[in-house]
Amino acid sequence: MQEPVRKPQGSWWALSPLAVFLCLYLVTSIWMNDFYKVPITVAFMFASCYAIATTRHLKLDQRIFRFSIGAGNKNILLMIWIFILAGSFAQSAKQMGAIDATVNLTLHILPENLLLAGIFLASCFISLSIGTSVGTIVALTPVAVGLAEKTGVDLAYMTAIVVGGSFFGDNLSFISDTTIAATRTQNCSMKDKFRVNSRIVMPAALLVMVFYVFQGLSLHTPPQTETIKWVKVLPYLIVLATAIAGVNVLLVLTLGILSTGFIGFFTGMSFFDWFGTMGEGIISMGELIIVTLLAGGMLELIRYNGGIDFILYHIGNHIKGKRGAELSIAALVSIANLCTANNTIAIITTGPIARNIGHHFQLDRRKVASILDTFSCFVQGIIPYGAQMLIASGLASLSPLSIIGHLYYPFCMGVFALLSILLRYPRKYS
After folding, report:
1. HSE-up of 315 (CA within 13 Å, CB side)?
2. pLDDT at 296 (0 to 100)
């Protein structure tokens, strides 16, 4: 029997700060046909002020304190540390020539017609190996930027290839936090969830891969006359090797920064040049840090005011049939992800309710875990204020909205996941 869900005190009004942000940033940018017309920091500032102003039953200083609790959440601070180290590594690697050397090596190894597919495949493989989309984006985005400059491929398009591929592994990897959260909340094994998940997303990945192969047929790269400086490729090899080995992403980036300095000293970069470039890289992450803090505070007020509980209650109590139950679970985790901008937290939040729904409608736990993971990754991959999109846009110096239109794999993954529910696929688990 399904456990009753306690009626929350919140209402749809609790979600209005998110609507304010989306209208100011997304709708206005599309209406003006200019993704840089409204800075994302300004949109979040207004939405955050609105969230504080509309929070009830608390004094102003208590509202600000609650907002600060959200901004200082450990997950928010972890993202900020990653941003700081990523900016420092990217800029110091660029200054000492690591990016140029890696780009030249990539162009030398990959045939020009397989360049786009090769970058997507590398992103898929690395994310599957390390279990994190953020780590993959940090490692590959600077290389993608360099390749775009050398080949003339649109920068937003090339960046989107990396972002899209990073969610392939984030959704399937055995060491991904989303996989761990989804399987634990549904009490099923990782290998069983992998079997279900792979049947849903593998066709999507193959379809996108074929698309990139055909797109690459018209790509013409300049002939490589530059000598590959192998020693300057070492920082990226160190970052990739330690990441694939499962080393913590903060330690991975620290090792990368130290390697750029050590190799830079022997290739003509002075100690103070190294310090200067690291400082520039950290400063370049300033906007991302501000956005992350504002988003964390605003989303905490939405949660505090009952916005997420209200959604969970109303969706969870209007279900008919197995197909409707699976669609409801997909909607629950998607909306929770939209409100938290963190796919792991969204899964943890909705997991217990999804388990109750699954038990009541006799759903396969492996399919439920797969739905939670896939739809949370789909939403996380396309929201402009998610950590992955923010760090990719920051490293590429682009607006997040300019990248979203080229995210073929996340959208394709979402479509295939929806079809798996509507068509009751895979049959064995439906």
Report:
1. 24
2. 84
The secondary structure of residue 34, as a DSSP letter, is -
Tokens 């759903």 sit on residue: 363
- Rounded to whole angstroms, the Cα distance separating 140 from 130 reads 13
Length of the chain: 430
The DSSP 8-state label assigned to residue 341 in this structure reads S
Give the CA-trace dihedral at 177, 206, 145, 221, to 10 degrees: 160
Question: Residue 425 in contact with residue 419, Cβ under 8 Å?
Answer: yes
Helix 365-382 to helix 408-422 angle (10° resolution) is: 150
Give the residue carrying structure tokens 């950290």.
282
79: Cβ–Cβ under 8 A, 6 or more apart, which residues?
134, 292, 387
Q: Phi/psi of residue 217, each to 5°?
A: -65, -30
Contact 329/357 with Cβ under 8 angstroms?
Answer: yes
Q: What is the pTM of this model?
A: 0.75
Please state, in angstroms and rounded to a whole number, the distance separating the CA atoms of residues 238 and 322: 48
Mean pLDDT by 10-residue block, N- to C-terminus, for the chain (430 residues)?
46 86 81 75 91 91 94 84 84 82 73 85 81 82 87 92 91 79 84 89 95 85 62 82 76 90 88 92 85 86 84 71 90 85 80 81 91 94 88 89 92 95 83
Q: How far is CA 272 from CA 148, 268, 408, in A?
A: 30, 12, 42
**How many CB atoms are located within 10 Å of the residue 286 CB?**
14
Taking Cα atoms as reference points, which of 310, 309, 326 lies closest to residue 360? Answer: 326
- Which residue in this structure is represented by tokens 């040049």? 273
What is the Cα–Cα distance from 119 to 116, expressed in whole angstroms? 5
Q: How far is CA 141 from CA 41, 62, 228, 325, in A?
A: 22, 40, 20, 38
Q: How far does the chain reach from its first CA to its final CA, in angstroms?
A: 20
